[in-house]
Amino acid sequence: MAIDLTNKVCLITGADQGIGRGTVHGFLQRGARVAAGLWQAARSAEGVAPALAVQMDVTNPEEITAAVAEVIATFGRIDVLINNAGIYPRCPADELTYKDYVKLREVNLDGTWRCCLAVIPQMKKQGSGSIINTGSITLRTGMPHLAHYQSTKGGILGLTRGMARDLGPFGVRVNCLHLGAVLTEGEMRLDGVGADQLAAIEAKQCMSGRQTPETVEPNFAFFASDESGDVTGQSLTIDRGWTHD
To answer: In this structure, which of 37, 166, 196, 240 has its CB flanked by the most CB atoms within 10 Å?
Structure first.
């Protein structure tokens, strides 16, 4: 049976491209009422139609508050938040400046935190909700030149577990998806060491072939749906068997 999201109100951040945009289109096909959180809404809104496009730079608290208010005003509720917005510059750990680290953290970890805080009051009021955070398989693989990125994803894992405990009594679930190497526009722009690493990943997978936004979308859909109603505080690895211990 296909996963049904009919009338679920779903806010997806980082929907300008890649995983976010793919999830927007997948959820629309499943019957969800979708709000696409966009870093550059003026440029990206057409690509997520007919979803509601909202300007949502996750480093900007005012934009987050305004976006969530617009979603509630339009649909009357928020059933699902997918924290997908993230950046992953590659750099040796001892060469990254603190300023650049702070920028990374503000998007990946602080942005996730701020978006959660913005939707929690509405979800508590409803007595239900599903927050889906995006982690990374690099927490387990320890890929080079990503120490700064991995530290933010480790924080997201802790945030997921703690919030699940705090919000469970209010009927709100919090889970995390650790994705492997998903073929997105960002990955296609990589060259040098990054591209070499990606070329070697498929050989390590149990199943050949690359993940795409379309192949990972059903996993987000499961955690957004009522079928996962008993699942909270959990992490699911989706990597075609890159790691399986």
So the answer is: 37
Q: What is the mean pLDDT of the chain?
A: 90
The verdict on whether omega for the bond into residue 50 sits within 30 degrees of 0, i.e. cis, is: yes
The answer to pTM > 0.85 is yes
SS3 assignment, position 114:
helix
Q: What is the CB-side half-sphere exposure of residue 73 using CA atoms within 13 A?
A: 8
* Domain presence at residue 241: no
Nearest-angstrom CA–CA distance, 108 and 85: 7
pLDDT at 191 over 60: no
Strand 80-83 with 33-38, pairing: unpaired
Q: What is the DSSP string of 31-46?
A: T-EEEEEETTHHHHGG
Residues with catalytic roles:
149
Range of the domain at 157: 9-231
